[in-house]
Design brief:
The chain is 31% helix and 28% strand. The protein has 375 residues and is an alpha+beta fold. The protein has a domain at 7-69 and 169-231 and 325-374: 3-Layer(bba) Sandwich (FAD/NAD(P)-binding domain). Strand 1, helix 1 and strand 2 (54-57) form a beta-alpha-beta unit. It is globular and about 55 Å long. The model has no long low-confidence stretch (mean pLDDT 95).
Length: 375
């Protein structure tokens, strides 16, 4: 078993990775993009397609963080269930973000082709309290004309969102990186950022002088920009994968236990299971991105509950940033430094949407905010 490598790196990743070169000393650009996950690559692609001279940087490489280490879910909505989102964010923003992710899902499916599949998704109750909460979620969705159906099936009782989808996250990022490169974007890694100032990004490999900088980093965002530390924190998320399990049939991804546990089964039979962060919540904040015995034991117990018999082949961890209100950071944090990130575990659709909004704001000189994401 590989105890640190990500199963996605080996599962149906078509074609070679796009060309990423070292940053050989100082350079200049119209815009510098920091981060080569999905949101950063979406921003870089947009900038390049609009004719800007763009340099994209990453401390490690394409899809090296949570963008290539997540569960592969494409779920509409934000990091809070819709009834909670309405109560905490306000009706207009909650519905606007939900509808924006519906639009982003359709864009993503069209863009990725066979790298994504529309399967629907399930939220399954693990307790009577959660079943009642799901009923509240269903009522809120129906009230706003959003799609959700009561579900009672082999996985349990809960809610079905029929239009949700899954994707291969590493392949997605490679695809976005290639599209960015095709648009003229220069992709450089490894280049760890050590300083962000107006007009300059300082890295371990050189300095990029650019009129605007787009920071599209999720995990560790508050370390890169310490002024965000009061609102952003980074947690470790953990997953495992098994070999094909012919005894199980999970046709769509499943969220369970208030979203803390999640699983999908690939068409080829492998299970990809994550979660249990709440079982040792305090230990997961600011923890290194390596699997822990406590959380992995919890994931093993979840495999038993599911009835899985295939052996575990991979265990891994990643960093994701969370905010207190579960809304992403999406604004100009320093003069000339536009920041998107901290998606609270739900960046697969919000991230690319925010990345493109940041790219447009960088070129148009407009204000970056969530109102631009929902527009």
């Amino acid at each position: 078993m590989n105890a640190t490598e990500v199963a996605w790196d080996e599962l149906s990743v078509p074609g070679p990775a796009p060309a990423v070169t070292e940053l050989a000393g100082d350079t200049t650009a119209d815009v510098c993009v920091v981060g080569m996950g999905a949101s950063g690559l979406a921003a870089a692609r947009r900038l390049g397609e609009r004719g800007a001279d763009v340099v994209a940087l990453d401390a490690v490489g394409v899809a090296a963080g949570a963008a290539g280490r997540n569960g592969g879910f494409l779920l509409v909505g934000g990091a809070r269930f819709h009834h909670e989102a309405v109560a905490t964010w306000g009706h207009e923003l909650a519905v606007g973000l939900y509808r924006a992710t519906i639009d982003e899902l359709e864009r993503t499916l069209s863009d990725l082709g066979p790298l994504a599949r529309r399967t629907g998704s399930l939220r399954i109750a693990a307790s009577p309290d959660e079943e009642r909460d799901i009923a509240r979620q269903l009522r809120a969705l129906a009230s706003d004309g959003l799609v959700g159906e009561a579900y009672d099936g082999p996985e349990g009782r809960g809610l079905l969102v029929p239009d949700d989808a899954v994707l291969q996250p590493v392949a997605r990022c490679r695809h976005l990186a290639q599209l960015a490169a095709d648009a003229g974007v220069r992709l450089h890694a490894p280049a760890r950022v050590t300083g962000l100032g107006e007009g300059a990004v300082t890295t371990t490999a050189g300095v990029v002088r650019a009129g605007r900088t787009v920071v599209a980093v999720d995990g560790g965002l508050e370390r890169l920009l310490p002024e965000l530390a009061a609102e952003v924190g980074t947690a470790r998320l953990q997953m495992l994968a098994t070999s094909p399990d012919p005894g199980l049939h999970l046709p769509r991804p499943v969220y369970r236990r208030w979203g803390y546990d999640y699983v999908q089964q690939l068409p080829t039979g492998e299970l990809l299971l994550g979660g249990c962060r709440d079982r040792s919540a305090a230990a997961e904040w600011d923890a290194p991105a390596v699997p822990s015995d406590e959380v992995q034991a919890c994931l093993d117990a979840e495999l038993v509950r599911l009835g899985a018999t295939a052996p575990v082949t991979h265990r891994w961890a990643a960093h994701a940033a969370f905010t207190g209100d579960a809304l992403p950071v999406c604004r100009e944090v320093r003069p000339g430094v536009l920041v998107v990130g901290a998606y609270s575990g739900h960046g697969n659709l919000l991230g690319t949407r925010c990345g493109r909004a940041a790219a447009d704001a960088a070129l148009d000189g407009t204000r970056l905010g969530l109102e631009g994401v929902v527009a």
